[in-house]
Amino acid sequence: MTATTAPPASSPLGHLDRPALRWLGALIAIVAVALSSWGVAGRFTEQSGPAAGLGPMDSIDQAGFAGETGVWVEHVRLLGGGGLLEIRYRILEVERSEIVHSVDYPPRIFHEDGFELRWQRHEHAHVRENRLGATYNEQLVNLGSYFEKGDVVTVYIGEQALEGVPIQ
Length: 168
What we know:
- The protein is of the alpha+beta class and 168 residues long.
- The protein folds into two domains: 16-46; 56-166, Immunoglobulin-like (Sandwich), CATH 2.60.40.
- 23% of the residues lie in helices and 26% in strands.
- The protein has three helices and seven strands, in the order ααββαβββββ.
- The strands form two sheets. It has a four-stranded antiparallel sheet with strand order 4-3-6-7, with helices on one face. The chain has a three-stranded antiparallel sheet with strand order 1-2-5.
- The radius of gyration is 27 Å and the shape is elongated.
């Protein structure tokens, strides 16, 4: 009885053995990580103006607003097919940021045409402090779809105003 053996399977890379293929795979992975890191870093270091950093909010000087309120506004955008208006903000200073819970001066958004939306407060009791660096959001009903993408609004927190905020 004679035994037959199958011819050796050919590799697309032909002459490379298993250890060489591992090294080649590792090299490709390192190059891919380096290129993607370079691309991400370049986005934040080489660009300037409204296209740099985090997006449409870059063109707005928030330093004074954040210094007074302890809050950095990340964005104002429409959700739910335009039925909800969301404001997202980050806590930079815990004590000052407690103004977002003020019953006397609830946070509000003014449209450039004079329309206003306020946070709904119903004897709001907040038993714990805001957390430093945490991001919070509030969603307001966009009655009658008055606010639209691209509109410019003013965000009030306490008595401080952040003007020129685009709705995303």
